[in-house]
Structures are given as C-alpha cells and as structure tokens.
Specification:
By secondary structure, the protein is α/β, with parallel strands linked by helices. It is 48% helix and 20% strand.
C-alpha cells in the first residue's frame, strides 16, 4: 500500500498551519512528516527571489518539486501545506508518463469566511496589496478550483473541503480528515 500523502491547501490565513499541526499531533502513530512549503523553500534555498511587497520567497518551482518528489514517494506518510495546489500541476511530459500520478491520497481545501479572513490577514500585519489579493482569492475560490484540477490531473485521488473559520472546529476537522483517509484506505 502506498503511503498516505495529504496536501492541505487554502488561502493564506485560513488555518493551514494550525490544521497540519493538529493533524500530525493527533495521529502520532502514523508518523506523518509535515512540510510547510514556505519554510522548506527558505531552508533549502529553493526560491528565485524575495518579494518584499508580499514578504515572501518566490519558489523556484521546478527544483522545489524535484526536491519534494522523493519525499512524497517514500514510504513515510507526508502532510504538506501550501496555498497553491498547482505547484504540483504536471507538465505535459509528466502527464504523458504519469510521473505525478497519485502523489497525494487526499487534498484538503480549507475555506474561511471572507470577513474573518480579512481580519486575520490584517492582524498579521500584511500589507494592503497582500490582504486584498488573498481576500480576492478566497472570494473567488482560486485554491478550490486549483485543488479540483489536481484530482482531474490524477495527482491526487481524492479531495474534500472544510470550513476552517472557527478555530474551535480544528479537532472535529482532524477527525473528519482521518475518517476520510481511513475510508480511502479501505477502498484501495
């Protein structure tokens, strides 16, 4: 059986980091390796530049995916958090040879009420442009559209969407994710 690899995605501020920490902690017996793409990019030097306007490193996507690929194909389960599911969009060649097929067992899209998200981003001290862009991404469901494409491309076999507006629902969300993972495992 292949390892269970989960991609947690959603607009910045929707609760990905909180969710991944709870998921790994509650499921210690599974020995999930957790990867925050932003930190991984910075630690490994896998970026093209630092964007001071958005206070973020711009990933050098091809080398980044190459560095992640052996981790995702290892037998240890992995939980990755990133705001852009299309980081794992296969190239035309990868679509033909199936290299990216089945990288993720499950993509979990976290959604957040737009007004709560706006407040979270503002409280983080994000610049106006970053707040506006991320708020618009949530309103337009860009992460959701991109996550569905990963399933269509075969990179992920399943997808689910959870409301992460209220931090007190984290525990029940983790339980929902793991019930879905167990259901998928039984189907395989």
């Amino acid at each position: 059986m292949s390892p269970v690899n989960i991609l947690i995605t959603g607009t910045p501020g929707c609760g990905k980091t909180t969710m991944i920490k709870a998921l790994v902690e509650v499921n210690a017996k599974r020995n999930f390796r957790s990867i925050n793409i932003g930190q991984f990019v910075k630690e490994k030097g896998l970026y093209t530049e630092y964007d001071s306007e958005f206070d973020a490193y711009v990933p050098d996507e091809e080398p980044l995916v190459e560095a992640l690929f052996p981790i995702l194909r290892d037998q240890r389960p992995v939980v990755i958090e990133h705001h852009s599911p299309l980081l794992f969009e296969p190239t035309e060649e990868e679509s033909k040879n199936g290299r990216m097929d089945g990288l993720f067992t499950l993509v979990v899209l976290l959604r957040c009420d737009e007004s709560v998200l706006f407040d979270r981003l503002t409280e983080r001290g994000y610049g106006v442009e970053k707040v506006i862009e991320n708020h618009a991404a949530e309103v337009g469901n860009s992460c959701g559209i991109d996550a569905k494409e990963l399933v269509e491309y075969g990179v992920a076999s399943h997808m689910m969407e959870l409301d992460a507006t209220h931090p007190d629902t984290i525990q029940s969300s983790v339980e929902t994710i793991m019930k879905r993972v167990e259901q998928i495992e039984k189907e395989e």
